[in-house]
Amino acid sequence: MRISRIGALALLGSLATGGALWAFAQSGQGVATIPAIPSVAVSVPQSPTEMRLSFSPVVKRAAPAVVNIYTKTFVQQRLHPFAGDPIFDELFRRRFGRPPTARGEENSLGSGVIVDPSGIVLTNAHVVGGADEITVALADRREFPARILISDEASDLAVLRIQGASALPALEFGDSDTLEPGDLVLAIGNPFGVGQTVTSGIVSAVMRANDDGQVYIQTDAAVNPGNSGGALIDMQGRLIGVNTAIFSRTGGFQGIGFAIPANLARRAVEAAATGAQRLEQPWGGIAIEPVTAEQAARLGLGEAPTGVSLLRLHPESPFGRAGLKAGDVILSMDGLDVYDEPSARYRFQARPIGTPAQVVYLRDGRREAASVERNAAPRSGAPTLVEIDGRMPISGMIVVELTPVLAASAGLSEAESGVVVQDEGYGPGARLGLRAGDMLLEVNGRKIRTTQDLAQAVKEAPALWSVVARRGERTLNFQARMR
Questions:
Q1: Which candidate, 75, 230, 233, 320, has a CA 20 to 30 Å from the CA of 446?
Q2: Positions marked catalytic
Q3: Taking CA 307 as the corner, what is the angle to CA 470 and CA 289, rounded to the nearest 5 degrees?
Q4: Please, are residues 259 and 243 in contact by the beta-carbon 8 Å criterion?
Q5: What value does the mean pLDDT take over residues 226-236?
């Protein structure tokens, strides 16, 4: 796309004569002539299309597939501050014939994208979460009820089916992994409920990790409340992201918007097509950290650090089964570079379970390749809480044998396995310095992998107790003497 400097051309044309610009100045020595400024080559629009420089052809193709989503959620409202008290409720019922509560209604507004002509709509989970009624309004103002097929809070993605409609306009998915900073994009949605709105901008960054650890496309195309679930499209009118959040100190747009990459959003649609009730993510079972500049220089990776270093692997990690081990540096997955924890997790989760990841890694200065299976997290029974009692330095604590699902819910690394402190209690264990979330590694020299290992370790009852635990990436040593 070429933008001509028409204003500059007009200015130069009014001042220039014979291709040169002349000026005169009065001084004590008479009139001095300033040398001519060289002429500037200016490109002039050659066609009506170049003069318009419009996004309208792209918008005309894409906008009909972007919808408004209205939700209703019914809640119980208290009609009196004492509502909920059994005695007051009974008195209120006797006097007015009904309880001191009423059914209220909460409404919300968002956007969505039709991705299949049969009426499959992609949006954000927070747009439809908990809704009792969902209405989808098309660009041509027709309205239809819709139901939720999948709503996944972790990825903030939801898939709906419009009821009673067919042969609808739909957007095709683009490849979000090909985006680069500076690419032109358009955001289409319904900000503040004013109606369908189109804003333009560029991709400000890719693989931008937010506080929740998820990876987003960052854009400066204006995104405001009501845009959530709307489309971020490229210049071919393909869906390359689902607008989901803004960074703002005032509640309004301040130049930073985030969109869920289309390659991840496509997985939610594919899962819904199989009848799945939720979006299950592949599980890697690894703890990683980005390669530092010093490590990159030592490994011969150049001045710009790239890759992630494997710190630990879960005993059942598919990376371990594929031959990787702690100390290896993962450079790419499926031909795409990784450079930090969020990007590595996204690369692994952007494709469905059952699809192998082609991993290139560095070991002892040599590049190696491995095929790593994408599997669901291992399933196990409900975790059993164990309370430690008796006369010992860790008495009073509640511990649990960690599972991958429990680790995820507790915000721990997916590589963690073993016995973790659930509650340090108020006894000797708390005074020793152990805290909830600490991973017990050794007790009295015995390695702790299961609660049975811990039971055997506490039976020994030496005079001097030693406990080794991991808190985050720190290894802590505790000692206590029994009296």
A1: 320
A2: 126, 156, 228
A3: 15
A4: yes
A5: 91
- CA atoms of 198 and 179, how far apart (whole Å): 20
Our count of domains for the chain comes to: 5
Rounded to the nearest angstrom, the gap between the alpha carbon of residue 198 and the centroid of all alpha carbons in its chain is 23
Contact call for residues 396 and 430 (beta carbons, < 8 A): yes
- 24-27 vs 66-78, strand pairing mode: unpaired
DSSP secondary structure, 321-339, as one string: HTT--TT-EEEEETTEE--
Q: E strands, 247-348, where?
A: 257-261, 286-290, 308-313, 329-333, 336-337
User: pLDDT tens for residues 177-229?
Assistant: 999 999 999 999 988 778 888 999 999 999 888 766 788 999 998 888 788 89
| Separation between Cα atoms, residue 152 and residue 363, nearest integer Å | 37
Q: State which residues form the domain around 19.
A: 1-53
40 or 369, higher pLDDT: 369
Identify the CATH number of the domain in which residue 436 sits.
2.30.42.10
Q: Are 302 and 356 found together in one domain?
A: yes
Residue 102: is its pLDDT beyond 70? no
Tokens of 363: 């070991």
Tokens representing residue 419 in the block: 């016995």
Q: Is 44 exposed, middle or buried (0-12, 13-18, 19+ CB in 10 A)?
A: exposed
**3-class secondary structure per residue, 108-132:** EEEEEEEEECCCEEEECHHHHCCCC
What digits encode the pLDDT tens for the residues 182-196?
999 999 998 877 888
Percent helix, percent strand, percent coil in the chain, to nearest 5 = 20, 35, 45
